[in-house]
Amino acid sequence: MSLRLSTVILPYRRWQDGGRSTWTRAEQLGFHTAYTYDHLSWRSFRDGPWFGAVPTLTAAAAVTGRLRLGTLVTSPNFRHPVTLAKELISLDDISGGRITLGIGAGGTGFDATALGQEPWTPRERGDRFGEFLPLLDRLLTEDAVSYEGDFYSAHEARNIPGCVQRPRLPFAVAATGPRGLRLAARHGQAWVTTGDPKLFENGTSEQSDRALREQGDRLADACAAIGREVSELDRVLLTGFTPERSRPLESVDAFVDFAGRHRDLGFTELVVHWPIADSDFTADEKIFERIAMEAPAQLKE
């Protein structure tokens, strides 16, 4: 099974002060996709610079030609399907059809309260995502959409000419629970996970592997329930949140061992964070670049 290597570039640098050069370097290094987080702010970066995902990806599309681009992930926390669809169609056009939408149900961080609302409960996040994703699917594939739901509405929303990618740009659906996995099975072209968050602090690699295998099995069950082959979905692991944390980026050998193990678990794409000094994503940039250039060939052997 082939394994693609992608990266996620956090949008914390001004475009003319390292932002642009990072995206172009990602293409030079041969990454399959470069994603960015779609937050209003995030964790320890909350009191520092942080830029919008869609403008950042638009700029990245203008300075790259082969690299796929995407969000990892967008959520309903501060977005509406109608306006998001218009932005995605525009972005897919500007990039020449190189956009992947990573999308999930959202969480309880800064995004959940920045618009002045109370944080949604897990059930409400699930309910909203259950409306948001199917409506977005329709908006990206139909010229005109009207819909009236419990949380979202659309009235003759026009989205002509639609996406460059047909029938629409791919969805990479982040999910671990039953409802989210059912949405991934029905609407996704890929499934995204970070592993089991309960294992991050004190878990072992063996426990993490077992949890990821079980998540994959539940995805397969969700696909089987609607008559879909699970092999139709790519499986994406956003690294850095399993018990190994950043250790796979300490050497090429360490990464190849980590990647080979997860390829054997059925993953088709691993996403590594672009190094950021003095953060949870600290890594040696020279080793990081060696991994990008050397590991894919070793994983084919």
Question: Can you walk me through this structure?
Answer:
It is a single chain. The mean pLDDT is 96. The longest helix is centred in the last third of the chain and has 21 residues, at 205-225. The strands form 2 sheets. An 8-stranded parallel beta barrel has the order 1-2-3-4-7-8-9-10, surrounded by 6 helices. It has helices at 15-28, 53-63, 81-95, 122-141, 178-187, 205-225, 252-264, 285-300; strands at residues 4-8, 33-36, 68-74, 99-103, 144-148, 153-158, 171-174, 190-193, 234-238, 269-273. It starts with a strand and ends with a helix. It is α/β, with parallel strands linked by helices and 301 residues long.
Secondary structure layout:
Elements: E1 4-8, H1 15-28, E2 33-36, H2 53-63, E3 68-74, H3 81-95, E4 99-103, H4 122-141, E5 144-148, E6 153-158, E7 171-174, H5 178-187, E8 190-193, H6 205-225, E9 234-238, H7 252-264, E10 269-273, H8 285-300
Integer-rounded radius of gyration: 19 Å
Distance between the termini: 11 Å
Q: In what order do the strands lie side by side in the largest sheet? A: 1-2-3-4-7-8-9-10
Computed structural class? alpha/beta
Q: How big a fraction of the residues is strand?
A: 15-25%
Number of strand segments: 10
| Overall shape | globular
Rounded mean pLDDT score? 96
Major beta-sheet overview: 8 strands, parallel, barrel
Stretches where pLDDT is under 50 for at least 5 consecutive residues are: none
Q: What is the helix/strand order?
A: EHEHEHEHEEEHEHEHEH
Give the proportion of residues in helices.
25-40%
Number of helices: 8
